[in-house]
Amino acid sequence: MAIVKQTFPVGLYQCNCSIIYCDKTLEAIIIDPGSEPETIVAKVESKGLKVKYLLHTHAHLDHFGATSKVKEKCSAVIGLHKADEFLYNLHEQQSAMLGLPQTTISTIDHYIQDNEEFTFGEGQLKTLFTPGHTPGSISFSLEIGSELFLFSGDTLFNGGIGRTDFPGGDSELIVKSIKDRLYTLDGDCRVIPGHGDETLIGKEKRSNPFVRA
Fold it and tell me: pTM score, two decimals?
């Protein structure tokens, strides 16, 4: 059995969308289908994947803009933390503010809980509640072989952290989330941020100018 991860940037803001799947059962999870639904669906169909969940690190439009159209093709469960539902429902205002195309939204099927686990085949994706960038920001951890991966959304970046000047942002809370929930992970944990290049927890603890361990 092997768990496979494929991460690729989509849309104007180059949001990192990730498809993770079990190559034994072909069950899959998509994290942050932010844009380019045709690209995402093509990758799913090329592998014959059965998508169980469309999960979101938070509800900024560049992270869920393709969700509704991907759901039409995949019939997967849409998951979001309830504290971000108000942002999800403000998609028209976000479109105008961010300069992104208008999109329809589908009903949230499942409210993600802290420490919840999502099973796909023989893989398990675990959630960490990391509010601050938005009230309902979530990070996800995943073991692939001997390596631990963290999908940090816009909470932690390579050399940076998420901005907190949008509605619901909290600068003190994001620092607490990073120190208490992310910096407690193993230093070799590979971080896949919501935008930009991969990093390591250990590297960020040593050198991130916004939050030092």
Answer: 0.98
